# Entry
Amino acid sequence: MSAFIAAAVSGFAWCFCTASASLCSSWCGNDKPSTVPPSANSGRKRSVLLLAFSVFVALIFQYAVAPRLQEDQMAANAPYIGELLVDKWTAGCTGEAKPDLVEVCSGYTGAYRASSSAFAFFCIFAIAAKCRPAANRESWPAKYVLFIFLCIGSVFISNDPLFIPIYLNVARAGSIIFILFQQLVLIDIAFNWNENWVAKSDQAEVDEGQGKGKKWLFAILFSCGVLYVGSFVAIVLMYVYFRGCSTNEAFISITLIMTLLCTAIQLTISDTGSLLTSAAITAYTTYLCGLAISKNPNFECNPRLGETSTGNIILGLFMTTISLLWTGWSSTADKRVGAHSEENAEDIEVSPPETFENKKVGGVVLDSGYGSSDSPHSEAAIENERHDEKNNNSPSFGSSWKLNAVLALVCCWYAMALTSWGAVERSGDIANPAAGEVSMWMVIVSQWVCLALYLWTLVAPAMFPNRDFS
# Structure
C-alpha cells in the first residue's frame, strides 16, 4: 500500500512540475511566437470553461464528498488518510449544535475549496496578464493541470482558519462588489439596447429611404410589450403560487409598485430614459423577485423546497449551473472589460512601422513638398496619423487582466450563492442548493439596489440640470 501511495505521489509531482515548467516558459516568452496581439478578453472561452469546471467540482465537494467525510461515515476508517481528511473537513464545524449542521458546514467548506482554488487561479493570471497580456491565451492545458492540483491540494487543507473565516469573509466582500458591478452593467445594457436600435432606425432612414427606419421602432414597441406582459404575468403567477406568506407578498408588491413608479417617472419627468429601458429593468427586477422568493427557506412559503426527486435534482442542478455560468459569461463580455472582441483583435497583425524611407510610392509624385515636414506624406505626418489611429480605432491589448479579475469576483459570488452566504442552516438541498434566508435577502436587496440606481438615472438630470450625466 505504501508503495502504491509513493508511486501516485511521484506521478502527481511529475505532472505538477511539468505544468509549472510550461507555465514559467510561457511567461518568460519562450512559447510559440505570435504576430497577433492579445485582445482584452483573450482566453475568455477557456476561462469560463474553467469556471464551469470549478462549479462542477464545488457541487461534487459539497454534496458528494463532504457527507462522506464525517466521523460516523466509513471514510473515517480508511487507512492512512481517512482520519486525516475527516479532521481537515470538519475543523471549525464541530461547534455546531446538531450533527446535521456539522455536515452542512463541512459541505460549505467543500464549495469554498473549489471556489478558492478558482479564485487564486484567476488572481494569479490577472497579475500575469497585467505584466504580460499574452499570458492569458497561452499554455491552457498546463493551466488546467495547475487548477486541478490546486483543487487536490485544497482537500488536505484544514477548514480553520483558511476557509473559515478567511476565505469566507473574502468571498463575502468580493460578492458584494460583484453584485454592485452586475447591477451597473445591466442598467448600462438596458440603456444601450434602446440607443442601439434607435441608431439603427436613423441609419435605415438615411441608407434605405424615408420610412424604412420604422421597422426598428416597431421592434422596440414589440419588445416593450413582450417584456411588460411577461413581467406582469410572472408577478400574477408569483402571487398565486407563493401566496400565504407576508414576506413573499411584500417582495412581490414592492416589485410591482417600484417598476410601475420607474416607468411613470420615465414617461413623465425624465429626459434620459426610454420605454424599452424601463421594460428591460422591469423584466430583470421581476426575475430577481422570483429568484428571491424561490430561496425562501420556509417550507410553507416555498413549494420548491423538499422536492428531491431525480427530476427535480437534475433540473435544480442544471438551472443552478446554467445561471452561474451565464453570469460568468455575460459579465466578461468584451465591452464589460473595456475592449473589442478577441476575434476582431486577432484579425490585426503586427507589421513593421512604415516610415518615410521604406514607404512604397507608386506612380509619379506631383507634390513638390513631398518629404518635407509640412507635407501630408512626410514621415512626421505619417507618424501622427498612425498615432491617431492607435488611440482612436485600435483595440486595447493591455486590459486582458480585467477578464480574470471579473472571474475572480464571480468565484466569490458563486461560493456565496451555493452556501447561503456562509450561514450554516438546514435550508437548501441538492435540488435547490441556493435556498436560505441570507441568500433570499441578498437577492432582494440587489433588486432594490438596481431599482434605486435606475431611478437615480431618471431623476438626477432633472434635479441637477447644470451637471453632465452623460
